[in-house]
Amino acid sequence: MAHDWQPDFEQLVDEHQSMVFSLALRMTGDRGLAEEIAQDVFLELDRYLSKIESAAHACFWLRRVAMSRSADALRRRKVRRMDLWVEVEEHHGAEPEERTSMLSARLEEMLANLSEPQRAALILRYQEDLTLNEIAAMLESPVATVKSNLQRGLKLLRAKADTHLKEFVRGV
Amino acid sequence: MEFEPLDELERELRQAFKRQQAPLSLKRKIMARSSSAAKPQSHAVLWQRLAATLALAAVLSGAAVLHHREEQRKGEAARQQVLTALRITNRALEHMNKQLTAHHRASHE
To answer: Does residue A42 fall inside a structural domain?
Structure first.
């Protein structure tokens, strides 16, 4: 199908490298692996570039392939996760900015303990700000399944947060 | 499909899950791998390369044939020169032999 949009590979890398890297990082919890995945995703985009029809199509394609490659990588490789709890306990009296950073680290650690579909749904919802329908299209899953994964993931996070993050979370 | 208003945990999640900046080396690595990866070539380019290869092969074959013929010609000329030299030598020897024979007869008589 003919289309007017002329893709510029380098520009696409500039615009989307943080998105692709962050998706891979939160899915795998491993910076090195996330960087490898991001490289592979962009090289695949380079080969597929003639079929990309618009900037929105490129963004959708990159998100979907990044999630898919991350899931593949997780199945191939068990990622060793750091135990952040001791570190957070040691920094209990830290400054507010440090506490925010530690909260992020704890939330990411809790995210890593969720199942892969729950994690994927939460990342796409809260990192990429996608709607249920968009997440369902991205993951090629029924909307009901995505909704269920989101609700269960949030419930598990709430339970863990209740136990470990009472100082940060109110009204749960 | 609409979501309900965010609660505190969801707000914290959104804050915590902001995109992280990619490593500074990521783009450089991607561009390096992209430029080194073999790009699929169009049929026109492939046909042009095939035609150029065939033309080069024809030129090289022609040059080889000409070179071979030239070598043959030089070899034949050298052979003819050797044969001529042998004929001359043979005639000189025959002449000398006749003179010796005549001298031998004269000395006996």
So the answer is: yes
Distance from CA of B6 to the nearest CA of A (A): 11
Tell me what ipTM this predicted complex has.
Answer: 0.75
CB A118 within 8 A of CB A152: yes
Q: Distance between CA A103 and CA A120 in Å, rounded?
A: 20
Cβ separation of B31 and A38 shorter than 8 Å? Answer: no
| Residue A136's CATH number | 1.10.10.10
Give residue-wise pLDDT tens across range B75-90.
Answer: 999 999 999 999 999 9
**pLDDT classification of A165: cutoffs 50, 70, 90:** low
Q: Does B107 touch chain A (CB under 8 A)?
A: no
Same domain, A17 and A56: yes
Pair A100, A153 in one domain = yes
Clarify whether residues A72 and A100 are in a common domain: no
CB contact under 8 A, B10 and A154: yes
Please say if the pLDDT value at position B108 is more than 70: yes
Distance (Å, whole) CA A148 – CA A129? 17
* Chain A hits for B29, Cβ within 8 Å: 35, 39
What is the domain extent for residue A108? Answer: 95-164
Q: Chain B: give the shortest CA distance to residue A21, in Å.
A: 6
Does A108 map to a domain?
A: yes
Domains in chain A, number: 2
A140: left (phi over 0), alpha (psi -120 to 50) or beta: left
pLDDT at A88 over 70: no
| pTM (predicted TM-score) | 0.64
Q: What angle do CA A143, A119, A159 make, to 5 degrees?
A: 105
Is the CB of residue B17 less than 8 Å away from at least one CB of chain A?
yes
